[in-house]
Amino acid sequence: MTDDEMKKEEPEVTQDPLNTPASTPAPAPTPAPTPAPTPAPAPQVTREKETVHEIRYMEKPGEKKKGSKLKIIGVLILILLIGVVAVFATLNVTMYAPVEGQTYPYTTTYNVWFPLGKTVNVGGIDMVALSTQDEMMIAVDGQTQKLDVGEDKLISERRAVVKTLGITVVDTNFQIYLTYRGLSDPATANFFLAVRTSQQVPQFIVNLLIPKEISAVPA
Predict the structure, then answer these.
(1) 103 DSSP β-pair partners
(2) pLDDT of 142 strictly over 60
């Protein structure tokens, strides 16, 4: 038998469709990767604190005004104190011969104690008190006068010009009267001293006429 005949006799095999293996399905496409979410920005803590700070200041506007007023008052007080110090630091008294024809309606009185035998300057006049029992010898600008106990005597008459910061604040005639009261101790004589002025003068200005070397108490 030839090859062609053998090929013709071989039966054609037909596959059973029920037993045919199912074809392998194609793999599903891989999904694209989901992009990572963008991180949220960090909270601005510093700015929040500043905002709260600003709100607090906005809630209390009166405190800022009060602080400004206190500063202004402090500056004014400081200026005033400097002015007062300058006034007293430049305060000075100059003595002149008295203006004639003046009257003396104002009087300031003191209880004073003179050290015996020592020169003191009262109202621009040098005075020395010397005691002889019930008599008091007082030298005024080199001229000696006698004072008895209880005797009231005019000792000096002058004109005083008081200036501060170069400005005249007081210009007055004045008289000094002494009344001898006796010895307080062997080294001290007690007097009643009266300063009479032609113009009304504050007592602290009159005090400038009394030297530190004698004890004086307003009387």
Answers:
(1) none
(2) yes
Query: What average pLDDT score do residues 136-162 get?
Result: 87
Give residue 190's pLDDT: 93
Strand locations in the chain (E): 92-96, 106-115, 119-122, 125-132, 135-140, 143-148, 152-164, 167-185, 188-197, 215-218
The mean pLDDT of 103-125, rounded to a whole number, is 92
Hey, which of 43-52, 57-66, 82-91, 198-207 has the most confident mean pLDDT? 198-207
Q: What are phi and psi of 108, to 5 degrees?
A: -125, 130
Instruction: Show the CA angle centred on residue 188, arms to residues 184 and 189, nearest 5°.
Output: 70
Identify whether the C-beta of residue 136 lies closer than 8 Å to the C-beta of residue 189.
Answer: yes
| CA dist., res. 142 & res. 39, Å (int) | 107
How far, in Å, CA of 164 to CA of 171, rounded? 12
Classify residue 116 by its DSSP letter.
B
Threshold 0.70, pTM exceeds: no
SS3 149: strand
d(CA 7, CA 1): 10
- Contact present, 146 and 131 (Cβ < 8 Å): no
Q: Are 190 and 75 in contact (CB under 8 A)?
A: no
pLDDT (0 to 100) of residue 52: 46
